[in-house]
Design brief:
It holds the Pfam family SRAP. One of its GO terms (biological process) is protein-DNA covalent cross-linking repair. InterPro entries: SRAP, SRAP-like. The structure is a single chain. It is built from four helices and 14 strands. With about 230 residues, it is mainly beta. Strands 3-4-10-9-8 form a five-stranded mixed barrel. A two-stranded antiparallel ribbon has the order 5-6. The chain has a single domain, classed as Alpha-Beta Complex (hypothetical protein yedk fold).
Length: about 230
């Protein structure tokens, strides 16, 4: 995961909206937002994550960098690179993995790979909403910070990013209820998703100069990464 996610609500058709999980529909809008990690120790670089708190689903703004500390009403971004959570066996992530799981809605993301001495950036988009798994913490001042979960590289994604693979989540309501339930510390469906990285959305891949500008390289032929669940 290389640090760019977007949600383009205006690009979601009515049919796609109706196909979206009932759990997620209340959190969809027709607005556009893009998100970057808190590089440069910028706590205001946030993402909109969905969590369960006191039995209610809510969307909150969380600094996209798990390692944060409190100073008055603000967060101080720590030195540990934690916009991704990969080694979930580490005690560092254990509490959030049990009790503080969240989701991030997206329609596009950015990945990169070094080819020779050049960093190639790839913009990957879907015509529908997909879901990324997130771990978060709530700090004593009420602020949130988070990390997007990544897993081992996926063969379809490897040509464009071969170090890790975003943790895409299935979109069915029953799984999402389990994932978001703070009272469920372990569940076989959660273990299965984490242990079996799956490309749930179909993604259109284009090499770009910048993620936000999306200016494509004419020398790169667009590629379609078909969902692992496609029949």
């Amino acid at each position: 995961m290389c640090g760019f996610v977007e949600i383009d609500g205006a690009g979601i058709s009515k049919d796609q909206y109706l196909m979206t999980s009932a759990v997620l529909r209340p959190f969809l809008s027709d607005s556009y937002k893009s998100f970057y990690p808190a590089f440069g120790q910028e706590p205001n670089k946030t993402v909109d994550i969905i969590i369960e708190e006191e039995g209610t689903l809510k969307q909150v703004s969380a600094t996209w960098w798990f390692d944060c500390s409190v100073k008055d009403d603000f967060l101080i971004v720590g030195p540990r690179t934690t916009f991704n959570a990969r080694n979930l066996l580490s005690p560092y992530w254990s509490h959030s993995l049990r009790c503080k799981r969240a989701i991030l809605l997206a329609t596009g993301l950015g990945e990169s790979k070094k080819v020779g001495k050049t960093k190639h950036q790839y913009y990957m988009s879907s015509g529908a909403v997909f879901i990324l798994g997130v771990l978060y913490q709530k700090h004593s001042n009420g602020k949130y910070s988070c990390a997007v979960i990544t897993r081992d590289t996926h063969p379809k994604m490897a040509p464009y990013h071969d170090k890790a693979f975003p943790c895409f989540l299935p979109t069915d309501d029953e799984f999402l209820k389990v994932w978001l339930d703070a009272n469920i510390q372990q569940h076989e469906s959660i273990n299965y998703v984490l242990d079996n990285p799956t490309l749930y959305p179909t993604l259109n891949v284009q090499r770009v100069k910048t993620y936000k500008g999306k200016q494509a390289y004419s020398s790169f032929s667009p590629v379609v990464l078909t969902s692992d669940t496609a029949i």
